[in-house]
Amino acid sequence: MINAIEETQKRGVNRAEHRLHLRCELPHHTTLPLFEKLVQREPVTLVSLMDHSPGQRQFANREKYREYYQGKYSLTDAQMQQYEEEQLALAARWSQPNRETIAALCRVRQIALASHDDATHAHVAESHQLGSVIAEFPTTFEAAEASRKHGMNVLMGAPNIVRGGSHSGNVAASELAQLGLLDILSSDYYPPACWMRRSASPMTRATALRCRSGEAGDQKSGASA
């Protein structure tokens, strides 16, 4: 895909400028090598730092984590327990080193950095310290408000608006919009979502950002375009 984008842009046949958003799943040994390979490509202009391991951010509730992944991968109880233990071990080994290294590389290359699923003041403070300029999908009002105070633009998913709330039980994008805490609306996992609307959704401050990105919850790969 990246090769095709670069080639068509060189030939001047694209009707729009195409840029890449790398979403990096931190708790994995392949993430940094893949990132280092992809980040050298010219279209990369945005990077997100994600951690969907058990007990973290979107999955602070471990039961929700088990429910989601056991259903997604059709695992038995024993298989799910093994999978969860494996993910915890990967997170302990790779999450923080990858977070710090990838953030540092983005700063050197002046690539915009986004946090992902921040839930607490501590999460936001760390994201700000690492150089994040976008708060991607904060899961709580607390995190969205703190992100704004740190000068970060708050991004939420348009499917959250269309559904009338978060599929994970987190803060609703419409609530943040009503409070003036929503800056960017992304199509996320459903590209047509930016063209759909709920009649009661106050989107006056949100900027529609049409961007197709990888599935946020997939831990079987590292960086995704």
UniProtKB/TrEMBL annotation:
Q: Which InterPro entries match?
A: Metal_Hydrolase (IPR032466), Metallo-dep_Hydrolase (IPR051781)
Recorded GO molecular functions are: hydrolase activity
Q: Which UniProt keywords apply?
A: Hydrolase
| Domain of life of the native organism | Bacteria
Q: Which NCBIfam families match?
A: PRK15446.1-2 (NF011981), PRK15446.1-5 (NF011984)
* Name of protein: Putative amidohydrolase
Q: Identify the coding gene.
A: phnM_3
